[in-house]
């Protein structure tokens, strides 16, 4: 986020989880592994955790309040960190 960027020391690394984490599933990923990553990232400051499933062509979005929603092709994912922006699921799978 812009707020986080402004508060970062330009001479150092940004610390903590990123505001937005996007994981793309691969055949080697397990459900337990994805859940562990989600919980770790959200507990450490991430605002959203996305799991992109290229085989099923959907995106699971979990926010820091623990709400989860599944987005399919033909739908738009709201991007609250970027004002009123949104991202078409179809544009992920081009």
Characterization of the model:
This protein has helices at 2-7, 31-43, 89-92, and strands at 20-24, 48-53, 58-63, 68-72, 76-78, 86-88. With 94 residues, the chain is α+β, with helices and mostly antiparallel strands. Strand 3 and strand 4 (68-72) form a beta hairpin. It is globular, with a radius of gyration of 14 Å. It starts with a helix and ends with a helix. The model has no long low-confidence stretch (mean pLDDT 91).
Order of helices and strands: HEHEEEEEH
Largest sheet: 4 strands, mixed
Number of helices: 3
Please bin the fraction of helical residues: 10-25%
Termini separation comes to 26 Å
- Quote the average pLDDT: 91
Spans of at least 5 consecutive residues whose pLDDT stays below 50 are none
Strand content: 25-35%
User: In total, how many beta strands?
Assistant: 6
What is the radius of gyration computed over CA atoms, rounded to a whole number of angstroms? 14 Å
Shape: globular
Based on secondary structure, the structural category is: alpha+beta
């Amino acid at each position: 986020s812009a707020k986080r960027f402004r508060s970062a020391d330009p001479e150092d690394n940004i610390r903590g989880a990123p505001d937005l984490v996007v994981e793309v599933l691969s055949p080697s990923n397990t459900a337990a592994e994805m859940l562990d990553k989600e919980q770790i990232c959200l507990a450490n400051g991430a605002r959203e955790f996305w799991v992109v499933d290229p085989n099923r062509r959907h995106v699971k979005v979990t926010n820091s309040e623990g709400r989860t929603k599944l987005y399919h092709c033909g739908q738009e994912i709201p991007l609250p960190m970027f004002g009123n922006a949104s991202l078409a699921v179809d544009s992920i799978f081009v």
